[in-house]
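SEVERITY: medium
COMPONENT: batch folding queue
REPORTER: lab tech (J.R.)

DESCRIPTION
The queue accepted two submissions in a row. Attaching both inputs and their returned structure tokens so the on-call engineer can compare them side by side.

ATTACHMENT 1
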Amino acid sequence: MIERIARHMRRYLIAYTFLSLMVGVLVGLKFAGFFKSNPKLVKNVIVTFAILTIYPSMVQLKTEELARSVRMFKEIVISMFFVFLLAPFLAMAFAKLFSDIDLALGFVTSNVVPASSASIGFVLIAEGNIELATILAVLSLFGALPAIPIYLSFYASVSAVRIPIDKIVSAVLYTLVTPFVAGQVTRFLLVYRRVKGMEGEEKFKKMMAIEMKLKPILSLATMVTMLILIALLVASKAEVIVEKPRIVGEIVALQSVMLTTLFGAITILDKIFKLTYRDHMAVAFISATKNQSVAAAIAVMALSLKSAIVPALIPIIQAPIVIGYLHLHPWLRKVFKV
């Protein structure tokens, strides 16, 4: 039953995202007074749902795969170049085109956070290298801890804007470290403890069976909490979105260019360095896509609710572009050797 519901929601996630946005606008307009008079409560509820959205992906993160990272040095270097160099500076360049500094800060935040477990799911669908994708996801998570405050501080300095760097550091630790620790403890209790004493193929098969049972539950939990989070974020600033529809256009247009540029650059560089198709798909999806729940939590805790509008709206365009790239797999198989 849960697996069927999760499969249905994944298939129609774009439609559900639009529905969540519309519900958020309607609720926000209907209860505008409540959102204005209870900013602290709204902020706490949003952060709670952001953490609940992040937590399932941390349960699925296989940190044990890091031991195998040494033999994937080239692929890791390429991915980290895009994650921690090209994407942040590209985001800061595009952020200057926003008409509002809060939105600009939200845009930079949305593009310096790590990938989510959904990105690994896309690699799986594309028949990419799951082992490599997992390693890249773990490394991007750890790298994001110092990278997010460093890049936000740098962008604020060149934009002559003051931001509470101490709050950003606290928000990063709270939104990444807390769910990561909780997720890995959960993984230990649900997976590792149940295969204790097993060896070899028996242990592998048991772990796979447990993970297959957990996957639809965690996937459904992530999607439901994400949709609620999007609705809450939009509701908190519904009047601004309705009065200034240009905001939506700016976010969607600039993120579209951002993602298209990243996928194009990744494809070209991976071809130059002669990556296989499987490795390329892992590098592409983990390097280009971002966990917008993390961005939303950081924006709400350290920046502003207005900044959080950006990660609330990015899923509108991120999912279609990722799915579009997935549909290029016949051509990509010809470009890259399998």
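ATTACHMENT 2
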Amino acid sequence: MSTSEFLTVVISLLLLIPILRFTLRRIAAYRQHRVLIDHRAGCCEQIGFMGCSTVCVGLYSLSHIQELLSVEYSRYELILVVDAASDAEAVRQIISHYKLVRVNSAVADSAASEVRALYRSSRRTFRRLVLLDVSNISLYDNLNQAVEVASYDYILPIGRSVSLYPYAIEALAIAVAAADSPVRAFRLDDSLSCYLFHRDSVVLSGGFSEHIIYQPLFASCPTLDTPIVFERNTRCAYLITNTLIIIAIAVYVCLIALFGNWRIALYIGWFLGSVLSLIIYYNEVLNRGNRSKITLLCYFFHIISFFYRRKFYLS
């Protein structure tokens, strides 16, 4: 076999292996999605053994809180970690709107704890909401405080601008139930640094940190290709895109005037247009309706994540 033939075979394998992996993942994601659709009416009863505590640090928007509370899964709670000292009025509005009352807690009563108070709703309608008032120390310390008061075994930390797809928790429960062995963590979205953690595994690994996903307990962290979360606020991204388009047009005109050669300017303009198209495509797939595009984008992030060291950080 000549060198050129050998290189052709190697390149073909490098192209076919990712395509095969992507196809298998798409089939698995499709099956999970079909199972969810076919059984969503009785989903809570069939897979209700799995409980999930969603944790969000620094969320004060009442509309966003209500959206996260609208999850129909039975074994689900939302833990809000806030700092009343930095935004007292917003915290008062949350307490008043959801009829929260202060409750006794071993975490809040501990002298070494940074937790000032723990609130739960006096109304049954909002019983799944937990408010944790803590000193604004660090993101990871706040997450660790939330783990101590969580009611369920699985922890889903999300950023302030992140929302859940309909039936997202049911999809997570199906994935956990379908796993061959106990799952310590699921990778959900690399672009948003979103993971589902088992609470006991987090405690055994020493708590949350930016390098928690590199702990030995999470060495074989499987990836869930079904879209679970999406970015809620994309206005900033659209503004950046429009600004880049204007800059690209200006640069293109300047290149024509500078080089005096339309071919060179055309090539550079084609390159800039390709980059802008990718940016626009990325912004468009952030819309919650484009589930197939989001799945493809998640897979793309999984590929490029091999070339840099990921950190666990929530925006």
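NOTES FROM REPORTER
The radius of gyration is 23 Å.
No errors were logged for either attachment.
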